[in-house]
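Format notes (please read before filing issues)

Several people have asked whether sequences and structure tokens are stored in separate files. They are not. Every record keeps both together, in the order shown below: the sequence lines, then the token lines. Line labels are part of the format and must not be stripped during preprocessing.
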Amino acid sequence: MPRISAATIGEHRAQTRDRILQAVSRLSRTQGIDAISMTDVAHEAGITRTVLYNYYPDKVALLLAFTEQVTQYFIESYERELPADASPADQLGAFIRLQLAGLLAYPHPGAAGLSATLGPDAYQQLADHVAPMARILADILQAGASSGAFQATDIDATARMVMAVIGAERVPLISGTVYVVEAAERVTGFILRAISPSS
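Then the structure lines:
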């Protein structure tokens, strides 16, 4: 890794944080978030463990920061790629595609696996950090239900089921047996058939 060069201490700290989170991103592609150790991250980032602990006191704090960064990236991508006048079905399709792309870009175990690895309290903190994505999905479903495009009387329950179907593609995506486009078409079609009003 090249040495960090910055004009101020604040810039240096920002660049170091970015280097650390980039290291987590790279490691998540090769060994999975649950298997990453603080030693792995320090080595990948080209810093000492002491420096790493100065920024993130433990793995939970590190994963919270990483999750927040990934969530922000997702939200910015969604806002950038989705036309303002898109139909609820198109919005849902874009949401599903970006979620699947995120599963491939940032592989991680399912909810049960993360909870077992980090413990229920830490897992709840991670869940709180991805809440903005859940709100986007709930808003899409609510807009579709209000317009009559979707049949979803319980928005929260429907959102959980949508996320479960998306999560079912995690292993095929990571193993390379399906591509994002193929998975997105399959998941979107399945969900739209499930929530479309009966003819």
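For reference, the curators noted about this record: The chain is about 75% helix and 0% strand. The chain has a mean pLDDT of 85.
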